[in-house]
Each structure stands twice: as structure tokens, then as C-alpha cells.
Amino acid sequence: MEDQNCTATVIMNALSTLTPPQLSDLIHSVSSLHHLHRRRLSSLLSSPNLFSLTLHHLHSLSLHRKSLLIARHLLLTLTHLIRFMQTKTAPPSYAVTTLKLRDLDAVLLLLLLCELRQHHPTALETPHGKWRVALCEYVSDSMLTLSGIGVSNSEVLIKYIEVVTKCRRFVNVMGCDGGGGKEGREIATSAAVVVALPSVEVSGSGKECVICKEEMREGRDVCELPCEHLFHWLCILLWLRKRNTCPCCRHRLPTDDVIGEIQRLWEVLIKIGGGDPSKFSA
């Protein structure tokens, strides 16, 4: 419960920085995402063949792969939110192609199965062929919600926060560190980000590269990180091959590691809300 409260607090603190029109824009964007997921769930539950194929796909995945699948789903959701929070304008529409439909269906079904098990622990202690019926009975009282009809803006936002909370808890409990996202472990910076780093000319003398401790000569080209700290190109390239933090201020750069990116974006969200990342561990 403490982790759930922490997650909700972080998101609500970030949302509190928005003006009413901005919050309305975000709700509209989140609503589109919500309705997409509801429609996919409706299709799953109404089609025995699609349900069977999706369930078979889930059973073929190892526990680690299931964790990564939900982590990717969480990463896409956080990316969508952070883009909005940083620009305060409507983010790009959530594209179905960001996750293959088969994977999206698998994530939604897995989350629904976990929800059913939480509320009715014995509901899934039946042959797999009866699971669809059990799920249909579980959601029968909220079919209008599943079809996206009659859902208020506040309910959409609450559901959004619940999904983020559920995904974070699932990933944390299952220990999905992906071979790099584990706290305290070094993660390489994304290659695409490294290639895009700008080259700037050193102005003035006496500036030192904190990696090699040697002077950066005036007029020479050096690398500038997003935090505006400067380094010799060779020094910082070797550094970023192993780490995604600035040697000076520990500013985090994007990484190709799923869990590493979730942690980075989570810290960004905390800072937007005016919090201290050290007090809101993932």
C-alpha cells in the first residue's frame, strides 16, 4: 500500500503543476489511450479465438519476459506523460504500433488476470478453457466502462494512475531488472543519444575535463551534455559507453535499457512535481 500511495503522490504532484486547460488537454489524450485499451479488452473477451491465442502467447513467455512486456508498457505510458509535462502541450497520439497488437493484448490480459486473482483468489483455479468466462463475469458489471461509454474525465485520470501504479508494482515485485536496470548498476547511454550530442568550441582558458583532469584548450571542439557540462570527446565517449550519467552533476541521459529508462523518467516526473528523487525510490 505504501508503494501505491507513493506512486499516486508522485503523479498527483506533477499534475498539480498544470493549469486547468493543460490538465484538460492531458485528460483528453489519456482518454484516447484508455478507450483504445478498453476496446482491445472487449475484443479479447468477446472472441474465444483471440482470447485463446493471446492466452497461449502469455503461457509461452517466461516470467522474465512477462515482466519485460509490462515494463515496456509502463515505459510507453510514462514517456507519453513526460512528453506532455515537459511541453505542457498535447503530446503525440498514442500509436498502436508502439507495441505490437499481440503484445498489447497480452499485457492487458495479464493485468486483468492479476486483478481478478487479487479480488477473487480462487477464480482462476479452474481449467484454462473457463478463464474467459470467469473474466467476463468479473467485468460484467462494468461493460459500459469496457466499451468506453459513460466514463467521466476524473474516472479516466484515476484509472490512468491505477494502471501506472499496478505496472510499477508488478515490475518491482517480479524483479525485472533486465540485466541493467537494477539500482546501483551502471547502464550505458543510448547510442542514438550519444550520436546526437553537440560539439561546441571552448571559449576562455583554464577549463578542465573532470574525467582526465586535463585542460580543454581554447578554440578546440569538445562535447556538451544536455546539462551544459563540457568534456573531451574521447573521454566522454568512453564514459557514456558504460554509464548514462554526467560525471559532474549525475544528470541522467536516456538509455536503451527498459528499466533504466523507467527509473530515469520516474525521477524526471518527481522533479517536475518539486520532489526529491532520493525520497521516492522505484
Give your account of this protein's structure.
This protein is mainly alpha-helical. It has two domains: 2-178 and 258-279, no CATH class; 191-240, Herpes Virus-1 (2-Layer Sandwich), CATH 3.30.40. Helix content is 57%, strand content 3%. It contains eleven helices and three strands. The protein has a three-stranded antiparallel beta sheet. Strand 2 (221-224) and strand 3 (230-231) form a beta hairpin. Helix 4 crosses helix 8 (153-173). It starts with a helix and ends in a 10-residue tail after the last helix.
Structural class label: mainly alpha
Tally of separate helices: 11
| Radius of gyration over C-alpha positions, nearest whole angstrom | 22 Å
Instruction: Please describe the biggest sheet, giving its number of strands, its sense, and whether it closes into a barrel.
Output: 3 strands, antiparallel
Form type: elongated
Return residue spans where pLDDT drops below 50 for at least 5 consecutive residues.
93-97, 144-149, 177-182
Terminal residue distance: 14 Å
Proportion of residues in helical segments: 55-70%
Query: Average pLDDT value?
Result: 83
- Count of strand segments: 3
Order of helices and strands: HHHHHHHHHEEEHH
β-sheet strand percentage:
under 5%
- In the sheet with the most strands, the strands line up as 1-2-3
Count of the separate structural domains: 2
Catalytic activity: S-ubiquitinyl-[E2 ubiquitin-conjugating enzyme]-L-cysteine + [acceptor protein]-L-lysine = [E2 ubiquitin-conjugating enzyme]-L-cysteine + N(6)-ubiquitinyl-[acceptor protein]-L-lysine
GO molecular function, one term: ubiquitin protein ligase activity
Organism: Ilex paraguariensis
Keywords: Metal-binding, Zinc, Zinc-finger
